[in-house]
Specification:
Length: about 475
Amino acid sequence: MVNDWKPVIGLEIHIQLKTKSKNFSPEGYEYGAEPNTLTHPVSLAYPGTLPVVNKKVIEYATLLGLALNATIRKRFFFSRKNYFYPDLPKGYQITQYETPICENGYLHFKTGNTWKKVRIQRIQIEEDTGKSIHDIDPFYTLLDFNRAGVPLLELVTAPDINSPEEAQAFLIAVRQLVRHLGISDGNMEEGSLRCDANISLIPPGHDKPGNRVEVKNLNSFRFLRKALEYEIERQKKIYESGGTVDRETRGFDAVKGVTFSMRTKEELHDYRYFPEPDMPPFELSETTIKKLKAQLPPLPYELWKRYREELNLSEKEADFLIEDLGISRFFERALQTYGSPKSILKWLMGPVRAYLNQNSIDISDFPIPPETLARLAELVDKDVIHFTVASQKLFPLLVKEPDKNPETLIKELALDQKADESFIEQVVREVLDSYPEKIEQYHKGKTGLLGLFIGESMKKLRGKADPRKVREVVVNLLNERK
């Protein structure tokens, strides 16, 4: 919401699928490969070649549809979307128009402190174009057809989004979901996830929006938000000055932070859609759909509710777990070994997160298995070893030798916690005996010296005692010496 103006936003999200071969031809695709080395007569549209649909693409589209609570179409066909552009070898794109594979779904996503539901109008299967390169040669545009034919899913939302912040949060949620399903890596910087945004404004006192503007090819979460923020202000100024917003397609200049006009908005008839004559209609059986549904992992919204309601985790803890669903899976496995959610989370939100950030790695590359981390949490809870000692001494060793048993390392390195109060008292007395003047200063009001006594005691105990226990003993013995 911008003052009394209500933005009405819908997104068209293109999701590049993580399949071994392209959509209608057998060659693979790898981001950053030598230009024009991953091509095939079919993807280059050589005369006489015929497309053959990639079965995995249909399965991935169905999985996404099921995850989004959509209706799966059991009989569908492909269409040709006709337009000319140099990086489109055939002069048309194979897509779906009249029979999208999925329709009428929805996605719950978290925006700020609330959950919102956005309707999904359709998911359709299509193919990517090649890539035009304008910044290498000063006189010519170069074409790389490696990407031509790479499978895409286009996800189209209803205009249920009402702010740039919501749009950004929704796109993040989609990336999170496709990664969780394993159907796409969702890397916007590599073009695996791209977004077009449609935006119009409802003026104050009205209930219908003005003309809709499409902003194309937004390739980062920040750019999506910035483009929408700019476009809202641009349209608002036009209306306030008595003008009319043109229905057009615009681009976004990320350097200047402004949108710019590209062309008037295309109408459906401009693309001259008609059924793809080189491929027959396809049918999905109920058995196949049920089989794919059984493969669905727990979804983010379901997990979040379970963490809050069943495991009694805080909102912050639940948010942390669903932010990276790889961490959520790690957490679930650890929980099977030791059923104390809070104890395991203490490790995940502390030492584990710090290690991942310091080494710029994903949880999938974290060396310590979930079962070992769970045993570590259990040993701390049972006072076998203190958390500080475990995190500072045992954790780094397990990172280097993840196959080692934590109990074995504790014994080998004599890291077991000395819980015997008489032993702790003996050590603390020795420390206090060496600081008679400091004790006198402490009793005269210099209470900051308490940290010195505790620190020196912990040194003598070689970090093997519970600091809380040591503090308690230090305070008691100091009181005795008043």
